[in-house]
Amino acid sequence: MDKNQFILAPGPTECRQEFLNILSNRICHHRSYEFKEVFDKVRNQIKNIVNLNQEGEVIILTSSGTATMEASVCNFFRKNDEVLVISIGYFGNRFVDICKAYDLHVHVLQYKLGETYDKNEVKNFISSHPDLKGVFITHHETSSGVKNDIAYVGNLIKNMDNCLFIVDSISGLLVHPMDMEKYHVDCVLAGSQKGFLIPPGIAFACLSSKALKLMDRSDLPRFYLDFRKYLKSMEVSETPFTPNISLIFAMEKACHYICNTVGLENYYNHHYEFRSYLESRLKDIGFHTDFAQEENKGNVMVVIKLKEFMSSTMIHREIESMGINIARGMGENAEHLLRVGVIGDITKEHLDKFIIVFKTVIDRLYSEV
């Protein structure tokens, strides 16, 4: 990796070179025994990461993570079904938009960017709406850096036989633990471009046995995203459509590296350490990272609060011109925040380099302020 040009964004991220090398290898046919063996291995590796029992299934799509979000709607619900979206930001709102596109009856508990949900409000809402067919939430909200308590919501829903708990863990998985059994989650959504150290291009949905049983009740239109097609093909270790063969091979190596070479607990701790380290360095040069309360912060990224006279657009552009990709804020806070990822194949040297570039840009743009 060129240490003078790199990504410090909350995804896509810097990829590990040994996994990128796999993408330039010859490909096998997707109906070959060679592919089937790796395909099955990846599905089982993902099951282990999310602690999904053998009665559940992992469906792999060649797509972005958003496709799995849409698939989680069109495969499980009927028009006018009552669902709840607990939204704490931009990607929670994406669930709202998808549910509305399929004419579901959407209830929204909306929270201010930088905050997590109110536990009493969520508990009271769910208990007073026994006909809910689904509850949607983000594991880690990439627009704010806030991590939601998944186990608490899962515990509220676990005895509701006809209600599915669906979690967008696209940025949260492998940065924070996800235990489908312990947290009572029915569907976990994720993609290749965040914690897995490989490029975007494949995404997956982890489905509990409860989700599989309730799938047949859906009457919503779907074709490429029809989970039934994938489940039928998976009976013979295949996919219904041509998959991203090379990325699936890279995913197998990435899962083995993260789970067996590094170890999941070490990997989780690594992200916390890097988030804390970058926050400390920013504090040393006079910038606040308290956009969210400490107990609600995720370890995917650091949110930098800019001073009132500063422009995230100008700073972002200058930093990029010096070889580092970060992200601006989102929504109404876009001009006042910067988001710096601490995931991907990076070292503390990259974080130190960012601090030097960031301070150089600030001094250049605002030396007279």
UniProtKB/TrEMBL annotation:
One of its GO terms (molecular function) is L-serine-pyruvate transaminase activity. Keywords: Aminotransferase, Pyridoxal phosphate, Transferase. Substrate binds at residue 339. InterPro entries: Aminotrans_V_dom (IPR000192), Aminotrans_V_PyrdxlP_BS (IPR020578), PyrdxlP-dep_Trfase (IPR015424), PyrdxlP-dep_Trfase_major (IPR015421), PyrdxlP-dep_Trfase_small (IPR015422), SP_NH2Trfase/AEP_transaminase (IPR024169). It comes from the Bacteria. Signal peptide: none annotated. Residues 25-329 form the Aminotransferase class V domain. Its cofactor is pyridoxal 5'-phosphate. The modification N6-(pyridoxal phosphate)lysine is found at residue 194. The keyword Transferase applies. GO terms for biological process: glycine biosynthetic process, by transamination of glyoxylate. Belongs to the class-V pyridoxal-phosphate-dependent aminotransferase family. This is Aspartate aminotransferase. It comes from Hathewaya proteolytica DSM 3090.
